[in-house]
Here is the input.
Amino acid sequence: MVITVAQEKGGVGKTATAQSVAAVAADRGSRVLAVDADPQFALTRQLGLRVGELPVTLVDVLAGRVDAAAAIVTDVFGVDVLPAARELRAVELSLAGEVARETFLRTALEPVLDRYDLVVIDTPPNLGLLTVNALVPADLVLAPVSAEDEGAAQGTAELRATLGKVARLRGGSEPPLAVVMTKWRIDRVMASVVEEAVLGLGLRLAGRIPAQVLVQQAAANRMPVTVAAPESLAASAYRELTEQLLTEAGTVPA
Ligand SMILES: Nc1ncnc2c1ncn2[C@@H]1O[C@H](COP(=O)(O)OP(=O)(O)O)[C@@H](O)[C@H]1O
Ligand SMILES: [Mg+2]
Here is the structure.
């Protein structure tokens, strides 16, 4: 199963969500690959990898220099990682002139897909070519919406429109889309306003992750919150979300 975490807005919890879902799934026994498709390489960094020390990354894979298998770093918090680097931005620009420019990532991942129960892809805060490449192989698109951000739900409508266009690259099928509310606070009026906007757009709400400074601290310490603070409410919400998504998909640990 491939879960792509996408949302046009930045700072909504895409990377935190990709990281935590990957870590939780690995912890419950799934074989997990985390793919960082963001030139800002936050997922790579927050999984503790040092970009300067990586001999090959997704940059080399998309440029056709190495196979995906050669760029995968194994067993980081139980997760295999296909890391990013800043040069992904240049690769994205060069892909624009290629035939099949939207399907490079799917083609690159194909040979390793059967090694994993779950592949989680983190994406940049835009709907450009890297994000489209990450949407093409998705079995589920998970869109974080920050409960602190009134306009956040609207970004998901634009993402949904992009999924309509991606369908033609997948034999006509649109990947299912689910929203996860992040930075959620029960006592904030804004949270319910945003939640109503999400539901008003006819979007499926798959879970709510509470706002907790521990999530930020874990990121600063380059760890998933589910590892850094497993007893926290945020970690427990990420466990619940991941269990639900994997159960629905019928993805059982090998
Ligand atoms: N549930 C949460 N509670 C508190 N802070 C959060 C939560 N989720 C994410 N953050 C923080 O919000 C910021 C943006 O999150 P991030 O995952 O990097 O978003 P994106 O990848 O969408 O840009 C980071 O500082 C992150 O630590
Ligand atoms: Mg990010």
Residues 57 and 234 are 30 Å apart (CA to CA). The longest helix spans residues 233-249.
